């Protein structure tokens, strides 16, 4: 099994097969617009601009589970990200990453790379790096700034 076996909904409610990302390097991130880590959007956008032409994509999954720091609907979140950070990478619907409503993709990601809390996501801006074969190769804590992930992306390119 790889991440290509999963389907998710984009921020407009359209079902997307992750198979469309086959052969690309992915960074999957659960985000929030009112978090202390929200400025990481800027670093994420920088990585996207730097490597997108080489087959790198960022998949942004807003999550309101941690301190209710992702309020608003999909349109409001997208607007905030565009105006404040100029985000150009793909945003998906707001999801749960822990608990009984965790989407299957996140269940899989957490099984592949456990964190300090085992199979739980600790907070907003936990990042998973996926290689071109759809395999989870690394997990980064919310405190890991996007620029620190640059060298790992380069290695996969």
The percentage of residues in β strands lies in 15-25%
Report the total helices: 4
Please tell me what the overall shape is: globular
Q: From the structure provided, what is the oligomeric state, counting identical versus distinct chains?
A: single chain
Q: Which radius of gyration do the C-alpha atoms yield?
A: 14 Å
Output mean pLDDT.
95
Summarize the structure.
The protein has 157 residues and is α/β, with parallel strands linked by helices. It is 25% helix and 20% strand.
Polypeptide structure, described:
- The chain is α/β, with parallel strands linked by helices.
- It has helices at residues 40-51, 74-85, 104-112, 150-156; strands spanning 7-9, 15-17, 25-31, 56-62, 90-91, 127-130, 136-140.
- It has one domain (3-156): Glutaredoxin.
- The strands form two sheets. It has a five-stranded mixed β-sheet, with helices on one face. It has a two-stranded antiparallel ribbon with strand order 1-2.
- β1 (7-9) and β2 form a beta hairpin.
- The mean pLDDT is 95.
